[in-house]
Every structure is written in C-alpha cells, then in structure tokens.
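Progress against Task 2.4 (sequence-to-structure conversion) is shown through the following example record, which the project officer requested during the mid-term review.
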Amino acid sequence: MGWSWNPSPESGISMQMIAAGGLEFETAVAGEGDLLALMLHGFPELNYSWRHQIPMLVARGYRVWAPNLRGYGATSRPQGVREYAVDRLVGDIVALIRASEAKEVLLIAHDWGALIAWAVAILHPDLIDRLVIMNVPHPMAFRREMQHWRQKRKSWYIFFFQLPRLPEWMLGARGARAIGRAFTGSACHPERFAASDVQVYRDAALRPGQLGAMVNYYRALFRHRDAVDLGDARVSVPTLMVWGEQDIAIDIHCTDDTDQWVDDLTLVRLPNASHWVQQDQPEEVNAALADWLDRRAV
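Structure tokens generated for the chain above:
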C-alpha cells in the first residue's frame, strides 16, 4: 500500500493508519499532547488539503490528525451507497475522537468534511470543544437556500452525480483531468495549485474504487437523506466560519443568518478566495484561525 501523500521528513508530518469504528483511516499525524485538532477534508480532496494549516496548529501546541475520509486514499472503502450516508460518516468522526483519547478537541472541516462536522457538532456537542467550518453552510441555511434558483443552479453537479457510472467515467477520464481542473479552473490564485499538488489528487482519484466512493457521498445524500435527525440543529460550541467569497458551488447567501442556529458564531469572509479557501489563501486563513483560537480559548 502506497501512501496518498508522502510528507517530507522535515515537515514533522507522518502518515499512519488509525483504527476507529471498524475502519482504518489513512491519517496525516503531527505534534503531540492532549489538545487534538481533527481536520476533515472535502470532495475531491484528501488530507493533503490541510498541508498549509498543520504546521501552524502544531506550533500552537496541538496534536493534529488529518484523516482521509472513508473511501478516500488508503482509508477503508466500504461498498455500497448506504455506507456513505451521513450517519455512517458522523460515526467515523465520533470513533476517531474517542480513539484519540484527547482532553480537548478542535474540529476543523471543509466542504464535505464540514457537512459532517456540522452534524457532529449538533448531535455530539459533548465530544468537541470548538468548531471551524470552511465554505459549507449550516444544514438549515443550505435547506433554505436550495429553495432559490441562485443556489440550485450552482448545485447542478449534485443532481448529475445521481446518475449511474457516468460521473465516475467523466471524473476519471484522461488521468482524472477533471479532478485537477476542479481546483485550477475555479481558484482565485491558481498559482497556489502547482502541478505536483494537483497530481496528488488526480493520482488518488484513480485508485480502484475511489471515484465510486467519492460520488456515493452525493448519492447517499439523496437516497438516505433521513439517515440522521438533526432536530432543531442547534450548535452550542463556539464556531468559526471562514468563507471564500468567490465560491462557484455555494452561494454567499448561504452564510446569511447562520446565528439563528449557532450560539457563538464568528464569520470571516475572504473576498479574494474561492471554495478551496484554505489552499487558495492559506496565510489569511491561518491568521483568521489563530486570532479566533486566541479569543476562544477553552
């Protein structure tokens, strides 16, 4: 088994397989101690998407775990759409937190990872101390915005992904060229996505079965939409939302009135960042995160 990401020795990051909830998670690990920063990536990414944030968090005293989510990279890849429903994904994160035996947990997440993180914060607030969300709205805000054409037209790909086989074929064609273009074609700062960076994502997507697993997240979202009951969807833990305003997939109105559901919310909008915010403007994201951590110490 080859790692999806081979960090340099001087980075202080190692790749490990961590067992949790009956699965094995390919995880970027750095730092040590009882303060855990658990970082969840999105589609069509990997834990590699956190490469700019991990050193900053270690320097601030965190032990960092950045797993590849189920189906990604060398992480276990269960078969069938049902295995990618939200209840399964939430269960993975709960199992990882418990396996860490950390005394304090900072959950940081982007895109699909953020959708999962919202649900963890709503359903298991006792397991996390602070929450950081990047470019995915609170589930109730997204439900509201999907009533408007401005968001529906940006969510066209979710409907496309419901088709059998065709999405996997198109994403994997020409050496997963579409995976690479997802980043470089929509970034505000494409120079941040070197050919070697994009190749990490393309190579991982071409692992047998990974494209099917990735698309099954979206299929399960439709077919098993009642897999979890979020109740009033209240988030009680302090929450930071970092939002790249030039997001081609999620409308900026999705951030409106989030404080209806989040008791302690800080919203940081970055006008010159895309959906891939933590890679597009890593210095600005790191500064916002560090400032918020200082002001929201547990």
